[in-house]
Design brief:
- With 301 residues, this protein is α+β, with helices and mostly antiparallel strands.
- It has two domains: 2-130, no CATH class; 192-300, Endonuclease, Chain A (3-Layer(aba) Sandwich).
- Helix content is 39%, strand content 20%.
- Helix 2 (49-55) crosses helix 3.
- This is DUF559 domain-containing protein.
Length: 301
């Protein structure tokens, strides 16, 4: 629902900050509430969508001056039953367009330049919901990961919650997001091994019982110690339950053969690289005290 929001009288065009504050003030007012809603507590609101991404310094987002409207995230107080209410429009006033995005799950806002702003995953979901071009969506999603704004998992969770993954252009862009996240996480794994002086592993290999079935792929494997490392992205996708069952089966099969499996996450690699290296080093050192593992064939992935 989009509304024209009055701005204080002034000469010249309103600044970006004035437009943002006007949109927030309107969203917090009684005029923005759905018909019949009873406001028992003060309304909370935060900037979301492309305006929020601009405040988060996304280069792929339009500048605040170029945006024709400001998306504002507000709590869902009930579905509107008629035309959206408008705030009083004083004569001689400049206006900005405020688009209210109602939600039953309001995230904790971040403060940027003194304004409440939706976190990147939620702002992305609200932004791409309004975009139909796959290249625009892909640029925003990949910049979220490449620019270090957030991991892919919370973005996909928000897109799933908003039921956007069924749209082909968003599903295609999500594949790029996951590939970008995967590449960056693999880079962190390489960095962990080389900067923390771990022995060189076999990278990205398939394990197989000689003359038997494939056991699955691992991201790093130390054959002498029979220690494997897997990146656990934990990203919900279509068929997630089946994928989880397959992952569990693979881990159990490897452990039954005496192979130690260490799972690392992108977040842990990013924030505690040395600690994750210590976990792998401990597994490598403990291997000499364990019964010898069954021999497996190591194949290029």
């Amino acid at each position: 629902m989009t509304h024209e929001v009055p701005l204080p009288p002034r000469t010249g065009l309103p600044t970006s900050e004035e437009r943002l504050r006007a949109a927030l003030l309107y969203a917090q007012s009684d005029a923005a509430a759905p018909p019949g809603a009873v406001l028992r507590t003060p309304r909370t609101a935060m900037i979301t969508g492309l305006a929020a991404l601009a405040l988060h310094c996304f280069s792929a987002a339009p500048s605040l001056l170029d945006l024709q409207r400001i998306d504002v995230l507000v709590p869902d107080l009930g579905e509107p039953t008629g035309p959206g209410a408008r705030a009083p429009l004083p004569a001689g006033c400049a206006y900005t367009s405020a688009h209210l995005v109602r939600t039953r799950i309001l995230p904790e806002p971040e403060e940027i330049t003194g304004l409440p702003v939706a976190p990147v995953p939620r702002a992305l979901a609200d932004a791409v919901a309004q975009l139909a071009d796959v290249d625009e969506v892909r640029q925003l999603l990949t910049e979220a990961v490449r620019g270090g704004h957030c991991d892919p998992q919370p973005v996909v969770r928000e897109l799933t919650r908003a039921r956007l993954l069924g749209l082909p252009h968003i599903a295609d862009a999500v594949e790029s997001l996951l590939a970008e996240g995967r590449a960056l996480t693999e880079g962190l794994l390489y960095e962990m091994v080389f900067t923390q002086a771990l022995p060189d592993p076999c990278w990205n290999v398939e394990l197989r019982v000689p003359g038997g079935p494939h056991l699955g792929a691992v991201d790093a494997y130390w054959p002498e110690q029979a220690v494997a490392v897997e990146i656990d992205a934990g990203t919900p996708r279509a068929g997630a339950e089946a994928a989880w069952d397959a992952c569990t089966h693979k881990r159990e099969s490897l452990e039954q053969l005496g192979i130690t499996v260490v799972h690392v996450t992108p977040q842990k690699l990013r924030h505690s690289l040395a600690q994750q290296a210590a976990v792998v080093r401990t597994a490598l050192m403990a291997a000499c005290e364990l019964p010898p593992a069954e021999y497996v064939t190591v194949l290029p992935r």
